């Protein structure tokens, strides 16, 4: 076994988060006050340090901690996205929670714990590490959903999320135990070696249960039931968090499991992924049409987007993985920008979340209306905005893998989805003006502007993202 | 019949009998007590099988912690168990059907069961080590990452429970032992002259 020193160098971001979060717990406990004080800032510094550690990493990839932990470029890419999502969420959350009077110091701690879970999940190289990372992430998320505990909707959201999450964990564990029983290995490579090219019935059962458990976390059809209610009920910054970082982690581990543990069962998992992909794209497109709450709309939108990301996964090639990585990167930026706009929807100090509250925004706040409109255009995938390129890469990979039907269905459904995104633009530009929103704070304006501008100008200089994603995708094969 | 066999049958009989008492008992407190008996005799079975660590774990964790918690819950919540048992009968047909389907699926899986050769190799062969010593040797070396990760999961659960349940009400009087000890006669008692038929304002 390698020395602990080398192992910790490979797991440096996780170590930073783990030590940081324990320090934060101590600070919070000994400060003696229930409000958040400087905790958000400390959390941002801790997460930022982990992000810097990933970006400046000089060590090569490696597998440490007795096959439990893998450090590779795929993981680095996804971890950077998750950390970015967490940092932006924390920056946006402070003022909202202070306005609602639920600015507890535990919230930043829970976010850092959840992010630690995501990092461990992304780097998991075996079933046990996968489960522990997933539970660490999920437990912290359940609590943040119910954080505003005097609000009946938030409590309902938390409870629903917890019960369904526990169910999904049960399915995942069942699958994991079947896999261990039939392959005799807990590491992904060991499972792949045991399966060879001929998966037997038990392995396929185990794989289906395992993928179902992960699909819950990705919120893809048919495991999406919790998403709209939880997104609507949870406090808006928490919803923004749910829609960004945990999705990245869930997609990352699903990709890693499928590609490293089941290369010998491609036919079987491909059917599964294609079904989930088409069902998610369809539900995300059609069910969102009749929503009048923007958070519910974003829930269906995220279900649809996960469906599109799975198109790349279904391809089963390095190009497909590259498409998934680019998709997730662009998705997370668009989503965080949109939630910055949703968090800016406050009338006389009270948050509002109906789509009709956006009526005539172009007349009352032209800049915000323009930014939000551009994000909607990008989410619907119209060139030359970044959302188009995200879909382009996954569909290209699907076509190259000869999955023509999937690609055609995906393109058709994305035009259906465009309807409800464009309806928001219509509401903002052509409807009678609703009461004007309060002026959002600097962070929200900055997040909205940066997100929109990067989506608008992505086509000018796409090389860094594409190259990073290419390198990351290759490291899986 | 050897002594070990005799004890095996003794423990098995007690386990099954007390399990039956758990589900048929009308008084929930009796059910919990019989569950404790079932756990202790299962621990005896584990000991007979040579799994002394699991046996101790069962006694310490389940009997020591979980069952006491159950007892608290049963005593604090006024749940009408007779009513619950009635409704359980109503769901019996549907529940039985689901159980049958799951059983059929399990049979399907077990039917194709082949034990992988690696699985047989990966069973621990600790030699002359006891189970506890063998576990102790790998917990902080081979499995240190997973062990610490599990620790973080528990920390999260603890923080979560506190966040969701702890209410700091401003007007609740709390015990402050140092303040109690620092009290003197001078700070606690105030002499007042009370004029007849008027009274004093009470703070």
TrEMBL record, chain A:
A single cellular component GO annotation: plasma membrane
Signal peptide positions on this chain: none
Domain NADH:quinone oxidoreductase/Mrp antiporter transmembrane span(s) in chain numbering: 124-414
Protein name: NADH-quinone oxidoreductase subunit N
Chief site of localization: membrane
Keyword Membrane belongs to the record: yes
HAMAP family membership: NDH1_NuoN_1
Catalysed reactions, as listed in the record: a quinone + NADH + 5 H(+)(in) = a quinol + NAD(+) + 4 H(+)(out)
Claim: Transferase is one of the keywords in the record: no
GO molecular function, a single term: quinone binding
Family: Belongs to the complex I subunit 2 family.
Organism in which the protein naturally occurs: Rhodoblastus acidophilus
Its job: NDH-1 shuttles electrons from NADH, via FMN and iron-sulfur (Fe-S) centers, to quinones in the respiratory chain. The immediate electron acceptor for the enzyme in this species is believed to be ubiquinone. Couples the redox reaction to proton translocation (for every two electrons transferred, four hydrogen ions are translocated across the cytoplasmic membrane), and thus conserves the redox energy in a proton gradient.
TM annotation in the entry: 6-30, 42-65, 77-93, 105-122, 202-226, 271-290, 297-318, 324-348, 369-395, 401-422, 442-461
Alphabetical GO biological process terms: ATP synthesis coupled electron transport
From TrEMBL, chain B:
One of the record's GO cellular component terms: plasma membrane
Family matches, as Gene3D superfamilies: NADH-ubiquinone/plastoquinone oxidoreductase chain 6, subunit NuoJ
GO molecular function: NADH dehydrogenase (ubiquinone) activity; quinone binding
Membership in a protein family: Belongs to the complex I subunit 6 family.
Regions crossing the membrane: 6-25, 32-51, 57-79, 91-116, 145-166
Domain of life, source organism: Bacteria
Stated role: NDH-1 shuttles electrons from NADH, via FMN and iron-sulfur (Fe-S) centers, to quinones in the respiratory chain. Couples the redox reaction to proton translocation (for every two electrons transferred, four hydrogen ions are translocated across the cytoplasmic membrane), and thus conserves the redox energy in a proton gradient.
Protein's recorded name: NADH-quinone oxidoreductase subunit J
Catalysis performed (reactions): a quinone + NADH + 5 H(+)(in) = a quinol + NAD(+) + 4 H(+)(out)
Subcellular location: Cell membrane
InterPro entries hit by this protein: NADH_UbQ/plastoQ_OxRdtase_su6 (IPR001457), Nuo/plastoQ_OxRdtase_6_NuoJ (IPR042106)
UniProt keywords, alphabetically: Cell membrane, Membrane, NAD, Quinone, Transmembrane, Transmembrane helix
E.C. numbers: 7.1.1.-
Topology in the lipid bilayer: Multi-pass membrane protein
Pfam (any one): Oxidored_q3
């Amino acid at each position: 076994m390698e020395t602990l020193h080398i192992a910790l160098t490979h797991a440096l971001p996780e170590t930073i988060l783990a030590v940081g979060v324990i320090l934060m717990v101590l600070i919070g406990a000994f400060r003696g006050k229930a409000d958040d004080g400087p905790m958000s800032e400390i959390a941002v510094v801790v997460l930022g340090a982990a992000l810097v550690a990933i970006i400046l990493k000089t060590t090569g990839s490696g597998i440490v901690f007795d096959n439990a932990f893998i450090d590779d470029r795929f993981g680095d890419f996804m971890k950077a996205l998750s950390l970015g999502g967490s940092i932006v969420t924390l920056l946006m959350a402070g003022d909202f929670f202070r306005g609602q009077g639920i600015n507890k110091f535990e919230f930043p701690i829970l976010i850092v714990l959840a992010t630690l879970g995501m990092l461990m999940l992304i780097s998991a190289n075996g079933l046990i590490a996968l489960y522990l990372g997933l539970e660490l992430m999920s437990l912290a998320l359940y609590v943040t959903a119910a954080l505003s505990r005097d609000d009946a909707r938030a409590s309902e959201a938390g409870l629903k999320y917890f019960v369904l999450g526990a169910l999904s964990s049960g399915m995942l564990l069942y699958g994991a135990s079947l896999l261990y029983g039939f392959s005799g290995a807990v590491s992904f490579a060991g499972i792949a070696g045991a399966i060879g090219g001929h998966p037997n019935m038990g392995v396929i059962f185990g794989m289906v249960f395992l993928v179902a458990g992960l699909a819950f976390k990705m919120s893809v059809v048919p495991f999406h039931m919790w998403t709209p209610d939880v997104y609507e009920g949870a406090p808006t910054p928490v919803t923004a968090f749910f829609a960004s970082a945990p999705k990245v982690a869930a997609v990352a581990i699903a990709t890693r499991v499928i590609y490293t543990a089941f290369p010998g069962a491609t036919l079987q998992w491909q059917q599964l992924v294609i079904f989930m992909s088409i069902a998610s794209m369809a539900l995300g497109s059609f069910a969102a049409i009749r929503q009048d709450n923007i958070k519910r709309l974003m829930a269906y939108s995220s279900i649809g987007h996960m469906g599109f990301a799975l198109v790349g996964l279904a391809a089963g090639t390095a190009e497909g993985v590259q498409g998934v990585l680019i998709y997730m990167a662009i998705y997370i930026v668009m989503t965080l920008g949109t939630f910055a706009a949703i968090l800016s929807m406050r009338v006389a100090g009270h948050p509002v979340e109906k789509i009709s509250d956006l009526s005539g925004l172009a007349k009352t706040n032209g800049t915000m209306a323009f930014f939000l409109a551009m994000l909607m255009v990008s989410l619907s995938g119209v060139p030359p905005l970044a959302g188009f390129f995200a879909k382009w890469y996954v569909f290209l990979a699907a076509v190259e893998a000869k999955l023509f039907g999937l690609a055609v269905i995906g393109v058709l459904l994305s035009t259906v989805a465009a309807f409800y995104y464009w309806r928001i633009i219509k509401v903002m530009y052509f409807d009678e003006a609703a009461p004007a929103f309060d002026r959002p704070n600097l962070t929200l304006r900055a997040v909205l502007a940066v997100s929109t501008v990067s989506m608008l100008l992505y086509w000018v200089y796409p090389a860094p993202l594409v190259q990073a994603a290419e390198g990351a995708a290759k490291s899986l094969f | 019949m050897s002594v070990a066999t005799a004890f095996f049958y003794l423990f098995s009989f007690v386990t099954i009998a007390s399990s039956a008492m758990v589900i048929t008992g009308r008084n929930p407190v009796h059910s919990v007590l019989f569950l404790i008996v079932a756990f202790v005799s299962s621990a005896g079975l584990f000991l007979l099988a040579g799994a002394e660590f699991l046996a101790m774990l069962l006694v310490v964790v389940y009997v020591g912690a979980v069952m006491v918690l159950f007892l608290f819950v049963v005593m604090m919540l006024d749940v009408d168990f007779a009513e619950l048992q009635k409704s359980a009968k109503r769901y019996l047909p549907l529940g039985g059907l689901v159980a049958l389907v799951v059983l059929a699926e399990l049979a399907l899986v077990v039917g194709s069961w082949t034990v992988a050769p690696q699985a047989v190799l990966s069973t621990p062969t600790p030699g002359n080590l006891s189970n506890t010593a063998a576990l102790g040797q790998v917990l902080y070396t081979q499995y240190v990452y997973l062990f610490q990760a599990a620790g973080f999961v528990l920390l999260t659960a603890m923080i979560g429970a506190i966040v969701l349940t702890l209410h700091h009400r401003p007007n609740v009087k709390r015990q402050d032992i140092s303040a109690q000890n620092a009290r003197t006669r001078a700070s606690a008692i105030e002499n007042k002259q009370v004029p007849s038929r008027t009274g004093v304002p009470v703070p």
